[in-house]
Structure formats: structure tokens, C-alpha cells
Description:
Blueprint: E1 3-10, E2 15-20, H1 26-34, E3 41-50, E4 56-59, E5 61-62, E6 67-68, H2 71-82
Antiparallel strand pairs: 1-2, 1-3, 3-4, 5-6
Amino acid sequence: MSTSKYIIxxxxxxxxxxxxxxxxxxxxxxNLFLANDTWKEVVAAGSVMVDDGSKVHCYGxxxxxxxxxxxxxxxxxxxxxxxxxx
Length: 86
């Protein structure tokens, strides 16, 4: 199992996950996406890993954004983003 970082972006109608390597900070990635008008805010951030059974696990928090992960909600969004059955 490898670990990556993620953020959950939100606009007025939906939320979307962005997964990225742990060599980047949450804030660096958030700034890239918030620079355009598509996304209003980052609502959650943390770390994510996928186990051998394709189960998504999210946990932790972002120091650079001062945001927590939302394990139940974020795991569903991340699973959808990764194309896993929900």
C-alpha cells in the first residue's frame, strides 16, 4: 500500500477529489486549483491509501491548510474518483 495526499475541492454544486504525491504540500496543490473560478474552496485534506482489496482509507489532516480529513465522506469521493465500486 502506498500513501498519497489529497484535497477535496468544492463549488456551489459538488465536491471533487484531487490526489497527488506526498512530496507536494496541500497548499501548493490547492493554490493551483483555486487560481481559476471553477472551485470556491478546499473543504477537506489529508492522506489516502488504497489497500490490496481496493478499499480507500483516508486519514489525518493538512498542516498547510489547517483542515481535517473527513473519513466517511472523503473515502466515498476518493473511491468514485479512482473508479472503484461504491
